[in-house]
């Protein structure tokens, strides 16, 4: 078996060029466009990492804010003493560990337990962190002073995005990816062909959580002053669910289709109608359920299928006039 | 001792919220994550009735409950029923209903924020101290507890001693078989959903008499109610009441002895124990 | 006589007050095709569920070639070499036919992956009569083809013991003949098989031995023709009047 086939090589080449072009943005603009692009790339990584786990399992994870906050806190606590790259590793390990604990407690059971548990996870971690800070340290907030500018955060996020995409692609080719596909189809069959379903789910949840933790760590310098409520902002969890599902979770690039429009829309709404953000989130959820159950991706695939059928029909008609 | 009594008083209101949710999830099979917003909405209505028309919140319940019943009936019929009809299996319905009720959650929250703003609200109703065994408790808390007990008792009688109550319990056990014995399952599901919403609204009205509330806090109550439902065993009214009292006790104990900022942590610690040792609920049978 | 590859020793399964399998003991010899029969509700499928690990026995022991498997999770039992089909056919709908078969072999007791797994899958598809259908979507398959596919998936694991849960049910007479021939071939290849079945013709023409259950109890065990003539077996199926 060759490592990459013709089609895959073409996709890889195209993706590399696209990444290269996108990486040039800070040379053109350092203001608004860079700032919103940081948001977009951040959500691309978050949503793609979320989809690694929630796409095949259909488990709706609301743990994003908890992993993200742990990443941010790791940097805030260690920035003065530990080199930044090492902090990224620690952030990944810490959020991976939390994912492991949550996964072991809930993923043996049905999906509903998992949703409920993750729903309050960010709030739980926030309370514990606040309590630790008030009892064992002098102040509630932590300063994060670094030499990083917006463009450095942007490049780090882009690099991470590339790693997430490659990881996702490798998982899809692996036994683990195939196991997840079977679990997504029929968990009973999965067990009876020898898949340790709980273990597979926990492993994937750890990978997904670790990436989200790294995003939180990369974003920490942007906050400059880190406090529990800003680091563990539950809205991040909901926005990630919306954007990922809006795009579509059947393919690894699906979330991209949701992230770009929604981030821009949400940015505009926050700027001009700050009291209406709840409505946007609410309506987006409704739209996903009632209008786009397979996301934008699903609609696109329907269109492609229709066109194919149309071509086949017209080809047949051409043959038999 | 005072921790135990305060804990039980708080648990009584939790019980009513959780019983409402367990009707919706256990019978109608809808995981309603907007349940907490339903509760907060009732808090606001009770507040508005009391401050604008000087209507006593206990009487306010008489107005709020039918209103919530109708509202929830409409939500079930127009928003949830289509999801039930299109779902191929229970897992899909769960995901769909979770997402749809998230939508509802944020829309209701948006409405409340626009109408009442983001501030904290409370009002003075029966804020008179009552002395029980040497400690003082607000009369409003005691009245709320008694009212919750009366409502829960009435529900218990309805479910166990009336024809329609039996039909609803049958749907909870097995909707397909219930349909075979000529129970109108869609109607019973809508009824249970509406009834669950009405119970939650009633507990909201009671809660507003002694609790400071704001438009954002619904989700915390949803979470607690969900955890209570899981702890008690889905669809099990008795279990939900016991779990609610336990949770009220645990929270009050943690708030008193460790830190009031750790109530969620207390809830989660209990939840974790249940998930690890009795995922089928306190009274539940081991799944086979 | 060859050794027992699988044996149940006083296996019991209770659902609350209902005892679905009551103190059941029997064994499957290596290379044997054993029929497990009995009226509806007598506990046959529950027995398969106990063996494959879908359910945990309340008490008793089940051993596979000397290894105790009672109460082990299903995936461990599958990896030890027990494969099964389901009473209501279970296909993985979003995968192609070939991938469905590959799924059976990747995680099982003989693990294959990559090109080798796909080659094997094509051979198995051919064997069950689905040659050249590897790329077809499973949703468009007929019932018997789905059953064939499920059998190929079970065979992909190269099982020591194969459990067939009413694999012949719902087939029309000509399909039934094909199905019976297929199972016979498997037995001739030396796979040990337990088949739960209601189609008596199939039991008569295929099985070496059969075990009869009624209300969770074993009421007969032995040579097929002898067992089917047993008055107690006839009573269990048809009621007292016919005994």
Commentary on this structure:
The complex is a heterotrimer of chains A (321), B (288) and C (243). Chain A is mainly α and 321 residues long. Chain A contains 16 helices and two strands. Chain A has two domains: 272 residues, Orthogonal Bundle (ABC transporter involved in vitamin B12 uptake, BtuC); 31 residues. A two-stranded antiparallel ribbon of chain A has the order 1-2. In chain A, helix 4 packs antiparallel against helix 5 and helix 13 crosses helix 14. Chain A starts with 5 loop residues before the first helix and ends with a helix. With 288 residues, chain B is mainly α. Chain B has a single domain, classed as ABC transporter involved in vitamin B12 uptake, BtuC (Orthogonal Bundle), CATH 1.10.3470. A two-stranded antiparallel ribbon of chain B has the order 1-2. Chain B starts with a helix and ends in an 11-residue tail after the last helix. The relative contact order of chain B is 0.21. The model of chain B has no long low-confidence stretch (mean pLDDT 83). Chain C has two domains: 158 residues, P-loop containing nucleotide triphosphate hydrolases (Rossmann fold), CATH 3.40.50; 66 residues, no CATH class. Chain C is 37% helix and 26% strand. Chain C has a six-stranded mixed beta sheet with strand order 6-7-8-3-9-10, with helices on both faces. In chain C, strands 2-1-4-5 form a four-stranded antiparallel beta sheet, with helices on one face. In chain C, strand 4 and strand 5 form a beta hairpin. In chain C, helix 3 packs across helix 4 and helix 4 packs across helix 5. The mean pLDDT of chain C is 86. Chains in contact: A-B, A-C.
What topology emerges from the helices and strands here?
The complex is a heterotrimer of chains A (321), B (288) and C (243).
Chain A (H helix, E strand, L loop, with lengths): L5 H18 L1 H4 L3 H26 L6 H15 L5 H23 L4 H9 L1 H16 L5 E2 L6 H24 L1 H11 L1 H6 L4 H27 L1 E2 L1 H4 L2 H14 L6 H19 L4 H14 L4 H25 L2
Antiparallel strand pairs in A: 1-2
Helix pairs in contact in A: 3-8, 3-11, 3-13, 3-14, 4-5, 4-7, 4-11, 5-11, 8-9, 8-11, 9-11, 13-14, 13-15, 13-16
Chain B lengths: L1 H25 L8 H19 L3 H30 L3 H27 L12 E4 L2 E4 H23 L1 H11 L1 H6 L4 H23 L10 H15 L4 H21 L5 H15 L11
Antiparallel strand pairs in B: 1-2
Chain C lengths: L3 E12 L2 E12 L3 E5 L6 H9 L6 E6 L2 E2 L5 H7 L1 E3 L12 H10 L8 H13 L15 H14 L4 E5 L7 H16 L3 E5 L3 H7 L2 E6 L2 E7 H6 L1 H8 L5
Helix pairs in contact in C: 3-4, 3-5, 4-5
């Amino acid at each position: 078996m060759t490592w990459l086939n013709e089609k895959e090589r073409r996709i890889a080449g195209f993706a590399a060029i696209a990444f290269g072009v996108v990486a040039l943005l800070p040379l053109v603009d350092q203001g608004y466009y860079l700032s919103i692009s940081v948001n977009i790339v951040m959500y691309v990584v978050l949503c793609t990492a979320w989809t690694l786990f929630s796409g095949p399992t259909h488990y709706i994870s609301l743990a994003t804010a908890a992993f993200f906050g742990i990443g941010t806190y790791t940097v805030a606590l260690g920035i003065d003493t530990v080199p930044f790259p090492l902090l990224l590793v620690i952030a990944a390990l810490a959020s991976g560990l939390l994912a492991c604990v949550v996964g072991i407690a809930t993923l043996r059971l049905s999906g509903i337990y998992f949703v409920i548990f993750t729903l309050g996870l960010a709030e739980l971690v926030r309370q514990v962190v606040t309590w630790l800070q008030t009892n064992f340290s002098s102040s509630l907030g932590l300063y994060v002073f670094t030499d990083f500018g917006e463009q450095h955060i942007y490049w780090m996020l882009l690099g991470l995005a590339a790693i997430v995409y490659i990881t996702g692609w490798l998982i899809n080719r692996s036994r683990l990816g195939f196991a997840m596909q079977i679990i997504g189809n029929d968990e009973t069959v999965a067990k009876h062909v020898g898949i340790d379903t709980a273990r597979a789910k926990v492993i994937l949840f750890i990978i997904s959580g670790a990436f989200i933790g790294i995003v939180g760590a990369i974003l920490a310098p942007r906050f400059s002053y880190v406090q529990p409520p800003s680091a563990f902002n539950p809205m991040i969890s909901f926005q990630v669910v919306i954007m990922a599902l809006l795009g579509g979770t059947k393919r690894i690039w699906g979330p991209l289709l949701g992230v770009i429009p929604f981030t821009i829309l949400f940015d505009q709404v926050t700027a001009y109608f700050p009291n209406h953000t709840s409505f946007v989130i609410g309506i987006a959820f409704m739209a996903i359920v009632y209008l786009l159950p397979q996301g934008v991706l699903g609609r696109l695939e329907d269109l492609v299928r229709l066109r194919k059928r149309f071509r086949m029909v017209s080809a047949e008609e051409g043959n038999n006039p | 001792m005072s921790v135990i009594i305060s804990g039980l008083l708080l648990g009584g209101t939790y019980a009513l919220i959780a019983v409402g949710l367990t009707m919706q999830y256990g019978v109608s099979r809808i995981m309603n994550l907007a349940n907490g917003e339903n509760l907060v909405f009732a808090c606001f209505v009770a507040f508005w009735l009391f401050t604008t028309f000087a209507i006593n919140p206990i009487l306010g319940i008489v107005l709020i409950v039918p209103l919530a019943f109708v509202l929830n009936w409409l939500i079930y019929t127009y928003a949830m029923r289509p999801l039930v009809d299109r779902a191929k299996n229970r897992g899909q319905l769960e995901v769909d209903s979770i997402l749809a009720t998230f939508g509802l959650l944020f829309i209701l929250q948006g409405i409340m924020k626009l109408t009442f703003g983001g501030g904290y609200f409370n009002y003075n109703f029966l804020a008179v101290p009552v002395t029980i065994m040497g400690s003082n408790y607000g009369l409003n808390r005691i009245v709320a507890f008694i009212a919750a007990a009366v409502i829960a008792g009435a529900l218990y009688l309805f479910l166990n001693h009336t024809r329609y109550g039996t039909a609803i319990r049958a749907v909870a056990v097995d909707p397909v078989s219930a349909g075979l014995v000529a129970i109108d399952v869609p109607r019973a599901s809508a009824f249970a959903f509406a009834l669950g919403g009405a119970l939650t609204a009633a507990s909201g009205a009671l809660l507003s008499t002694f609790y400071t509330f704001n438009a954002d806090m619904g989700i915390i109550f949803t979470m607690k109610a969900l955890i209570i439902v899981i702890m008690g065993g889905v669809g099990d009214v008795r279990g939900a009441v016991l779990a609610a009292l336990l949770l009220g006790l645990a929270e009050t104990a943690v708030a008193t002895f460790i830190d009031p900022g750790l109530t969620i942590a207390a809830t989660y610690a209990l939840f974790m124990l249940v998930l690890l040792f009795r995922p089928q609920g306190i009274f539940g049978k081991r799944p086979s | 006589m060859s050794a027992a590859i699988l044996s149940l020793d006083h296996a019991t399964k209770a659902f609350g007050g209902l005892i679905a399998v009551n103190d059941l003991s029997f064994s499957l010899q290596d290379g044997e095709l054993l029929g497990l029969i009995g009226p509806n509700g007598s506990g046959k499928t529950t027995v398969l569920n106990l063996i494959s690990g879908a359910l945990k026995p309340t008490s008793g022991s089940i051993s596979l070639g000397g290894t105790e498997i009672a109460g082990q999770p299903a995936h461990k039992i599958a990896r030890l070499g027990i494969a099964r089909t389901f009473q209501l056919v279970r296909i993985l709908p979003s995968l192609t036919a070939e991938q469905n078969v590959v799924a059976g072999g990747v995680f099982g007791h003989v693990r294959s992956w990559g090109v080798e797994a796909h080659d094997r899958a094509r051979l198995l598809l051919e064997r069950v009569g689905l040659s050249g259908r590897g790329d077809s979507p499973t949703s468009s398959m007929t019932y018997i083809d789905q059953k064939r596919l499920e059998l190929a998936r079970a065979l992909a694991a190269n099982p020591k013991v194969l459990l067939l849960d009413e694999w012949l049910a719902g087939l029309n007479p000509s399909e039934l003949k094909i199905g019976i021939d297929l199972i016979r071939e498997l037995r001739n290849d030396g796979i040990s098989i337990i088949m739960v079945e209601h189609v008596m013709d199939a039991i008569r023409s295929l099985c070496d031995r059969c075990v009869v259950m009624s209300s969770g109890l074993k009421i007969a065990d032995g040579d097929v023709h002898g067992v089917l003539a047993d008055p107690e077996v006839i009573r269990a199926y048809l009621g007292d009047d016919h005994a």
